[in-house]
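Hi, here's the filled form for the chain we discussed.

Project: internal
Contact: R.S.
Residues: 201
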Amino acid sequence: MKRSIISKLAVALMAASGALALPAWAEMKIGVVDPQRLLEESPQGKAASESMRTEFAPRQRTLQAQEQALKAKQEKLQKDAATMTEDQRVRAEKELRDGMRDLERARGEFNDDATARRNEEMSRLQRTLGEEVRSYAKAQNYDLILTAETLVYFTPTFDITPAILAALQAHSTTPAAAKPAPTPPSTKPAPTPPSTKPQPK
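And the returned structure, exactly as it came back:
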């Protein structure tokens, strides 16, 4: 895995600098895609996030209500402890401890369920995004697609993320789905590329 990433990085750096020695490489059509941006900005990614929020919001509100109720009980116990009988105080303390245990157990179950559901949703979404990238790459005759996460630097000339986002938008079921995909950018390094900042990835 590490060797594969290093190999991709080396190829990308040479392509970006125009320092490839083999003429065959200069003719390759190379694209770079930002997976994180696809997850965050695509209609499918936004829909997945909204679905998760909608699914778990009721349980989250229930946990918040339980927490507030326990806090109120704790404050009441601290306020009334001096005037309570021993039995009343012991009973109130036990109820508070039991409530806190129940809350912690409910929180744990909530976190486990939310994590499992998120992993399931992200796995499905990543398959969808990956299929879109492969389909676009084949249709536009790309020879190599790299991810921005593995690169130190590349010019916007190579970035096909906007085109992939437009394709995902076109395939979504939202009203804005009719927006056409832009013309794919040229991927051959220009002799004098425009001034750009290194990618933060």
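Let me know if anything looks off before we file it.
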